[in-house]
Design a protein that fits this description.
184 residues, two-stranded antiparallel sheet, two-stranded antiparallel ribbon, 7% strand, globular
Length: 184
């Protein structure tokens, strides 16, 4: 499955952001508990524009993380309503921009807009592509029994089930042990 590069990058960021939540993180703790942790995450995904590095911004990003986690699980029609609301709330005005090393891509807010708002709008723009291509089934929750991580399935056949190789290996080992125990 191929989306536009900026769509894939935005969706990958949503996965990374949402998987910092205690319900989905590997550590079982909030991996976005401090402004420094937020800065580290943003650096890995080349976020530009206004970043305040304060507790109010972190709180808004936590709210955005919960919202995006919820939208990820919605069916196509319900996702449309949520995406449209995110765009309406931000008074988004899509436009093509090119900056840094990035080629033409869409932004729909000003670089001075609050970070959480820009995250929501960029996610909404990416989700528009997913919805328009009728590929919402590629937005999933990990199939591992003990994991609530989000995953984005960009595989050709659309059969990816686990958020990480670690989860897949763990579940395969459990299934192997169960099969072996049944034979004994």
């Amino acid at each position: 499955m191929h989306f536009a590069p900026d769509t894939e990058e935005s969706l990958a960021f949503v996965v990374a952001l949402c998987n910092t939540d205690p319900s989905a993180s590997r550590s079982g703790e909030d991996e976005l508990a401090t402004a420094d942790q937020l800065t580290d995450l943003l650096t890995r995904y080349s976020y530009t524009g206004r970043i305040d590095h304060d507790e109010a911004e972190l709180h808004d990003v936590h709210h955005t993380r919960a919202l995006l986690r919820h939208v990820w699980t919605l069916d196509r029609d319900d996702a449309v309503e949520a995406v449209n609301k995110m765009l309406r709330d931000a008074r988004a005005l899509p436009q093509l921009v090119r900056h840094d090393e990035l080629d033409w891509h869409m932004h729909a807010t000003e670089p001075t807009s609050p970070l959480a708002e820009r995250i929501r709008v960029e996610a909404a723009l990416a989700l528009i592509d997913v919805i328009r291509m009728d590929e919402t089934e590629r937005l999933r929750i990990c199939a591992a029994d003990d994991c609530a991580g989000l995953l984005l399935d960009l595989s050709r056949n659309g059969l990816k089930r686990f958020c990480t190789v670690r989860c897949g290996n763990r579940m395969n080992m459990i299934a192997f042990r169960e099969r072996r125990a049944d034979r004994e």
